[in-house]
From TrEMBL:
Matches recorded under PROSITE patterns: NODB
Protein name per UniProt: Polysaccharide deacetylase
Pfam families noted in UniProt: Polysacc_deac_1 (PF01522)
Organism: Clostridium cylindrosporum DSM 605
UniProt KW keywords: Membrane, Transmembrane, Transmembrane helix
PANTHER family: CHITOOLIGOSACCHARIDE DEACETYLASE, GLYCOSYL TRANSFERASE-RELATED
Length: 237
């Protein structure tokens, strides 16, 4: 009986060790955590001021953007354009027009890949390539990163911190990217979630270009001011 105790202790020790190893294996896959934990990227700002920001993620739509810029100018409205690097490299003059019109230019990664599916090195490269492109071509230094597809986890937050950017998403999705999107649907979605400090997501899509005048007019009719994402992050009561 007494001789068996050391064996039992050894079995227990090995069992605990295996469980610990299994736990580590579940939590980490190489240098990347597998499980998402509770994190809160910036999708809105707590404020009583009736302001909202518009974030337009750009990875296409160079034929639609001139019209959108004209509509924004008509309403004397400045927004944030989050630039995808591959698109940006081919459309520097368009980005220059955005900048010269007073709009905020920020970072949407380079190859439009989901951050949670990339390595540490590739994630940092996504942000830095776009940052360096805009800096070298236009003297723009991005400070905010909006991940493609709104895809993120705790790992993404660490990457963005290392790249000296803020991780921002949105709390109002116009769903202009969907095939069934319409001006009516977009306005209903904006109406349903319009609140102080909100961030509205859109893209340079045909329906957005057609609806932008109505979107801006509706938001302003509700007593809201439209500002850039950079401005809304710096609101102080």
């Amino acid at each position: 009986m007494f001789k068996k105790k050391p064996i039992l202790r050894m079995i227990t020790f090995l069992g605990v060790g295996m469980l610990l190893m299994l736990g580590v294996g579940l939590l980490f896959n190489g240098d990347k955590p597998v499980f998402k934990s509770s994190i809160t990227p910036i999708d809105k700002i707590q404020t009583d001021k009736k302001v909202v920001a518009i974030a337009c993620n750009v990875y296409e739509g160079e034929d639609l953007l001139p019209s959108m810029l004209e509509t924004l100018k008509k309403h004397d409205t400045k927004i944030s354009f989050f630039i995808g690097g591959v698109w940006g490299k081919k459309n520097i003059e368009m980005i220059k027009q955005m900048k010269d019109s007073g709009h905020d230019i920020q970072n949407h990664g380079y190859y439009h890949k989901k951050p949670t599916q990339l390595s540490l090195e590739d994630n940092i490269k996504e942000i830095n390539l776009t940052h360096d492109l805009l800096k070298s071509e236009l003297g723009i230094e991005t400070t905010i990163f909006e991940p493609p597809y709104g895809d993120f986890d705790e790992y993404t937050q660490k990457i963005v911190n290392q790249a000296n950017h803020k991780l921002v998403t949105f709390n109002i999705d116009t769903i202009d990217w969907r095939d069934d999107a319409s001006t009516d649907i977009i306005l209903k979605r904006v109406n349903k979630k319009l609140n102080p400090g909100g961030i509205i997501l859109m893209h340079p899509k045909e329906i957005t270009e057609k609806s932008l005048d109505s979107i801006i007019s509706y938001i302003k009719s509700q007593g809201y001011e439209i500002i850039t994402v950079n401005e809304i992050l710096n609101i102080t009561e």
